[in-house]
């Protein structure tokens, strides 16, 4: 099916576009009353993720309400460890909790390389339902967590400020870490390829905890596995978003992907210099800007667009939109990108 709005795909590929495309990480979620209504009708987050019709409904809400240039499938990066046999619970106001962690060779034996059609079929079905409902209006983004970030949760057992157990494993048992990363990577490649087959138009890899590793450890335990995923997913454009990994921008220039996501701490001009002219950049407004006045949002958004320039840029925040953000402020950001992102091309 031909897309009515293919700005995001063309920008990712480096083609000339009429204006800067815009979408937001975590755009489908708690900022929207419509999302909360669906969520409150269910037992919790996991039921929403695992029910294709409801996941599709909240995926499409930001397209209808916020007028973004892409939908991103409503899911979670932690569906991958669960599919591998390491289940999680989502605790309200606390985040994910893994009752059982992976810290020994014996623990590793309890895991499998997941078959996406068997263990993650609910996500694939949600993509198919969403694609039918979107009817070509905008592209649909599929995603997965980067192997290091997934390992961090599986070893730590929950979110953490330090991920000391996970980082400690890289020193005390690097062989086990690589074995686990291998299984996660094999699962992730199969999962992302299945997402593309189900209808995803682009893929994003989220390395949420990239920034807590030393540069040396990132180059040993993170980058090679991300690179392998990028090499494997050659059917659609791929974005790599590694939060906090400012030290690896030059390394990212060598990845076989189209787009590199920048967080709000990464300087635009310096990032462009290190990544080079052959990749599209995505980002990178501070999500806290959306707490400010409409005038400030307009001014800072225009400044961001000016600094990125009119080509090879996808406008986004430098991280997911925060749950207590006013949807009207989000609309202001999106509308400013659409209007000013056209002007700077003329």
UniProtKB/TrEMBL annotation:
GO molecular function ontology, one term from the record: uroporphyrinogen decarboxylase activity
Database matches in Gene3D superfamilies: 3.20.20.210
- Which EC number(s) are documented for this chain? 4.1.1.37
In this chain, the site described as Transition state stabilizer is at 76
Task: Alphabetically list the UniProt keywords.
Answer: Cytoplasm, Decarboxylase, Lyase, Porphyrin biosynthesis
Which residues are substrate-binding? 26-30, 76, 153, 208, 319
Report if keyword Ion transport is assigned: no
Give the domain of life.
Bacteria
**Catalytic activity reported:** uroporphyrinogen III + 4 H(+) = coproporphyrinogen III + 4 CO2
Function of the protein = Catalyzes the decarboxylation of four acetate groups of uroporphyrinogen-III to yield coproporphyrinogen-III.
**Similarity annotation:** Belongs to the uroporphyrinogen decarboxylase family.
Assembly? Homodimer.
Name this polypeptide is given: Uroporphyrinogen decarboxylase
